[in-house]
């Protein structure tokens, strides 16, 4: 190579290195809804901690003494990672769910669980198998609540959904035109033109999903409207919707494998979704919002929380956000802690009698040192989520530990239970994690039942 050419190559390499070093100090960049991964040129020679000293001090693992000062945890059987219930005397951890399960035959309604999360549970991954397992044990049927329209309806296998033209979708990730006053727990809401339809068909993908006993349609606002439900393609029932400023619900009953809801006349209402479920047993609702870190919970109106509590009371709300924060800078761990505690507290105020469970992030890998290793920041995020549960006085389950801890996502990829992004599980992996989740929930209920029958209380 000529000297002049070598000189040019050296300069190109130096400029490239300098550019990468500068980019590594830039904050996270979002282009549209896509989160650009931060460049870290020195990742292989840097220490594992992504946290500054101040952030580490604030988010350090709770000491045994701190946890035991509030924790209520039953002795786990071998190999199980039990739920740490850190609720105070208000009993806003697992107790509301266990009490509801104890009285399931006399409640006069289903026991309801809401699962709030990001793309990790999108498409009903994990929650579909958790729902099936719980319904096999406690009764119930149907997929539960489904948003009015879906960006990828074919991806979700627990229900066949079709939404016609005529729906305008808004959600918390929109860059404009979004109004949090109308948003449900996923941060979604919809407008409709007259004639818009959405249909839900039962499936045999998992047990108890082919038919249901009740379908409920949810909308809100000060407008008027008229909707018609068509059950099994033959029987119809129409409802006039009157303005009251609150969430309204209209229901049809009877054994149904298919239901279609049609907006006959719209007078300015906002639409949320519809359900397929039972009038008893257990219901598990999937509220997934892709790319979310849970920030939208801070902006959902107190009225929305209160209205849903009246119409669709949840015995347990499971909070599963964090994967979209785990690889970020230290300062965002602190802000994530604050916004999640605030969001949970707002829900608690408007949803009395509901329990809350914070579930940690799963394992997530990054390429480092020529191989895939647990992303630096994952363990710190798990610690932060334990601190969130402690400070919000709710329950906590360490999914990261339950699935095997460090490097467990690599094993799931090798076993074809997770995607090649080393972050997201597939349906096979969801079934595996759902079994772990089911085991720990039912184990906790069994311990609660033994204490209640012995008269020991909690």
For the biggest β-sheet, the strand order reads: 3-21-18-17-4-16
Structural class: alpha+beta
CATH class type of the largest domain = Alpha Beta
Strand content: 25-35%
**What's the overall geometry?**
globular
CATH A-level architecture of the largest domain: 3-Layer(aba) Sandwich
Poorly predicted tracts of residues? 27-38, 41-59
Radius of gyration: 24 Å
User: First CA to last CA: what distance?
Assistant: 79 Å
Q: How would a crystallographer describe the biggest sheet?
A: 6 strands, mixed
Please name the fourth-level CATH homologous superfamily of the largest domain: SGNH hydrolase
CATH-derived topology of the largest domain: Rossmann fold
How many domains, in number, for the residues?
Answer: 2
Number of helices: 11
Q: State the helicity in percent bands.
A: 25-40%
**Averaging pLDDT over every residue, what do you get?**
86
Number of strands: 21
């Amino acid at each position: 190579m000529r000297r002049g050419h070598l000189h040019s190559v050296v300069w190109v390499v130096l400029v490239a290195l300098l550019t990468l070093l500068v980019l590594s100090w830039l904050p996270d960049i979002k282009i549209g809804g896509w989160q650009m991964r931060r460049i870290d040129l020195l990742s292989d020679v840097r220490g594992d901690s992504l946290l500054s000293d101040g952030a580490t001090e604030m988010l350090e693992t709770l000491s045994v003494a701190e946890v035991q000062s509030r924790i209520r945890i039953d002795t786990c059987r071998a190999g199980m990672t039990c739920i740490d219930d850190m609720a105070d005397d208000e009993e806003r951890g697992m107790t509301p769910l266990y009490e509801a399960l104890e009285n399931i035959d006399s409640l006069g309604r289903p026991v309801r669980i809401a699962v709030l999360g990001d793309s990790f549970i999108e498409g009903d991954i994990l929650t579909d198998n958790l729902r099936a397992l719980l319904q096999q044990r406690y009764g119930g049927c149907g997929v539960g609540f489904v948003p009015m329209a879906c960006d990828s309806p074919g991806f979700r296998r627990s229900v066949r959904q079709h939404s016609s033209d005529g729906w305008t979708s808004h959600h918390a990730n929109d860059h404009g035109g979004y109004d949090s006053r109308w948003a449900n727990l996923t941060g979604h809401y919809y407008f409709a033109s007259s004639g818009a339809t959405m249909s839900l068909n039962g499936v045999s993908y998992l047990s108890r999903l082919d038919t249901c006993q009740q379908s409920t349609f949810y909308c809100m606002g000060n407008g008027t409207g008229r909707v018609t439900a068509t059950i099994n393609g033959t029987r119809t029932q129409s409802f006039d919707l009157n303005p009251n400023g609150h969430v309204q619900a209209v229901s049809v009953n009877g054994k149904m494998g298919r239901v279609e809801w049609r907006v006959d006349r719209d007078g300015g209402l906002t639409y949320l979704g519809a359900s397929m479920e039972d009038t008893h047993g257990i219901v598990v609702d999937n509220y997934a919002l892709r790319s979310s870190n849970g920030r939208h919970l801070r902006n959902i109106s107190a009225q929305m929380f209160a209205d849903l509590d009246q119409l669709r009371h949840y015995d347990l709300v499971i909070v599963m956000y964090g994967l979209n924060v785990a690889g970020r800078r230290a300062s965002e761990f602190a802000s994530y802690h604050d916004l999640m505690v605030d969001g949970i507290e707002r829900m608690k105020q408007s949803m009395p009698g509901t329990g809350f469970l914070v579930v940690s992030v799963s394992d997530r890998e990054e390429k480092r040192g020529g191989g895939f290793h647990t992303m630096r920041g994952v363990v710190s995020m798990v610690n932060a989520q334990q601190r969130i549960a402690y400070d919000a006085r709710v329950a906590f389950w360490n999914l990261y530990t339950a699935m095997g801890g460090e490097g467990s996502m690599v094993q799931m990829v090798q076993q074809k239970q997770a995607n090649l992004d080393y972050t997201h599980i597939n349906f096979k992996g969801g079934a595996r994690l759902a079994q772990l989740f089911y085991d720990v929930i039912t184990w906790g209920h069994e311990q609660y039942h033994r204490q209640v029958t012995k008269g020991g209380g909690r």
